[in-house]
């Protein structure tokens, strides 16, 4: 039962500001989970702690039983808006670079996702639209065959057509038999039918972690409506 | 996605939708349903949710899964006929309940329904 992400009494402080306060939760394999909450609620910090790119001030984060740190990148594929570091790379070069960094990167899968996303492999990253950068993130992140895919705001600020293609990419290429996808989002309505469960944060505290369908069943509420009530 | 509402679990709403498609004949006896993943892609829906919808319909005998081949609308339709009647009964029950609450008599409901259907048929022509 060690195949999960486990956080125990995690607190994260930046200088004298508390980003996260006493968070305890577990996330198993086989789920799509949304981290929701307003700006500054700690969503991105939580995701970064799970990826091992950031370390807790106190408490523990373990991924498959091992303490999260830089080596966690072996089992976690993490992406955020700032992950596309080399603007002079073409789409294909970015894919080749990712393959050189991660042994679990599946080039054939990457090609397939790239085609689905209708990306031109010869385009330079710096000349891609915001939407196409988002699509490239999907290619680079989902082509890694690792148990955990973590994406920071993969749908934010994109037009509906691009969001739709990204969501379809996620459903097509995340294998819930072996993988879990965790993403942050401040537009909950968009991910309601996509996620199994959600983690709601408010001012750095865990407000609720629940199964989406349970919320529908027990309270007959969409997450958005529940949040309106819970965040007052 | 917008067609799904919060009053009921999404997997049940998907199950109801598939059920209605079978009853209306949109999905035919013996027809293969999309794979769980393809159904997920169609509705931007979590594959686990689709899986639950399929399992629910299987449990009710409305769908059947053949190992290694996929999920099908059964060839045998007796179960379906039964379900069709049940669904009709449920809908009528609901409608009559609301009408009764508002104080309409059986005769009024019946004549109202007849008029409505006659008009609707004219509209179709």
UniProtKB/TrEMBL annotation, chain B:
Secretion signal span: none
Transcription is among the record's keywords? yes
InterPro entries in the record: Tscrpt_reg_HTH_GntR, WH-like_DNA-bd_sf, WH_DNA-bd_sf
Sorted UniProt keywords = DNA-binding, Transcription, Transcription regulation
CDD domains named in the record? WHTH_GntR
Q: Show the stretches that span the lipid bilayer.
A: none
Protein name from the UniProt record: Transcriptional regulator
Q: Origin organism of this chain?
A: Gordoniibacillus kamchatkensis
